[in-house]
Amino acid sequence: MLGVMIDDRLNGLAHLHYIRGKVARILNRLTIARGRRGLSGKVLKVLYKRALERLVTYAAPAWWAGTVRQIDLLNKIQRQVLLAISGAFRTTSTAALQVICGLEPTHLVCEMQAAVFHIKHHSPYVSLFGEIYTGPQLETYRETWIHPSSIAKVQWDKDFPPSQFSIFTDGSKTDGRVGAAFHVIEGSKQSRLSVSS
Known about the structure:
A three-stranded antiparallel β-sheet has the order 3-4-5, with no helix packed on it. A two-stranded antiparallel ribbon has the order 1-2. Helix 2 (about 40-55) runs antiparallel to helix 4 (about 70-85). It starts with 12 loop residues before the first helix and ends with a strand. The longest helix has 25 residues, at about 15-35. The protein contains six helices and five strands, in the order H-H-H-H-H-H-E-E-E-E-E. The chain is of the alpha+beta class. Strand 1 and strand 2 (about 130-135) form a beta hairpin. The chain is elongated. This is RNase H type-1 domain-containing protein. It comes from Araneus ventricosus (Orbweaver spider).
């Protein structure tokens, strides 16, 4: 398959080792640019989400099996990026780095991509985050889709008996303050009340 390394064991580890080297080379260049050109951690985070994470999770449904060895290798790959983004010490745990940087673990991203692939290709069951979903639990595509503008409008007062008065309400929030008002029309008399905090 294009861009996926496959070995005789078909466990995806050869691909992850290849990707680990590729990410390490790219990250080396980025950390040099960080020192010389002043790239911030925010820029590195955006580059990770937009480029490196997609490089790591490319074709995940083909090689992702969710084994402990795959998860460990993905954590090692992501850890190097997290250290570069945060500038934290090497002794900081990977889970703490993920929280500090605001990035989800890569193995969860791979699992979600595999699940979405199986849903799109009408798999009878899908495993996502340890839960197995079957037929009725999955949403299905219907060919009889109707555009929302062609749906008949709802008339709320159609089935209600006529009333001798009408009430109109409004609520709003501006400049950190909340206000509410109502207006009552009863024949020719009108009453108003407004409240603000």
